[in-house]
Amino acid sequence: MLKLPASLGRPLRRTGLQIASLLLLLGLWMLATLFTEADILPPPWQVFQRIGSELSQGELLSHVLITLGRVFAAFILAMAIGCAIGLFMGLHKTAGRFFDPWLLLMLNLPALVVIILCYLWIGLNEVAAILAVAINKIPNVAVTMREGAKALDRELLEMARCYRLSRSVTLKEVIWPQLTPFIAAAARSGLALVWKIVLVVELLGRSNGVGFQLHLYFQMFDVAGILAYSLAFIVIIWGIEYGLIRPWESRVNRWRVA
Question: Residue 46: exposed, middle, or buried by beta-carbon count in 10 A (0-12, 13-18, 19+)?
């Protein structure tokens, strides 16, 4: 019997388990449709047909790309600012204690309030939309990175000082490798949160994007359309997760295995 190498067997088993999980979810969906009306919960093939129809018309791709652009813009802005704030608060204890109430305030400020205020203060435009999403995500990134900075190995930092390493070398060779798990965690949770907030932003104040389409289909009570746009964008987020974030996380964490 042919036996696969361990390095190849584990990824195949993991992939097989994930495929089985998705098939189970699809089966449960199909089972649920047996007890509900089609206009309440359409069967999977009807939703997939709707995705194909929207793609052929060009509507789905257009709105998804617009939403994706807003997601990436807000995500990059939130990660950059949130990482800087979190590192500053984690490496400087006095500053961390001083600004902790600010961070707690922002963490508990409802996303809807931030979105409404940005639209009122800046206007119904792209700047307000992206800024509202970024502001909602920055505190979460900052908290994650603050805990990462607190968890840094102080002995390694002291060693860097003893060898008189420059700040850039210390950041690259000592601090950065230890922070990559926290950055990956912030990125993964951030991507999931950002695109959900983007949909709310589009629903409230934009005339295009997935959120706008969901609002339109909600008014029409078109469940198939709502599920079609939702699934299409979820598949793209899955692609980013498995195609970009996880491979990057595995690559930068090789030193921990070694």
Answer: middle
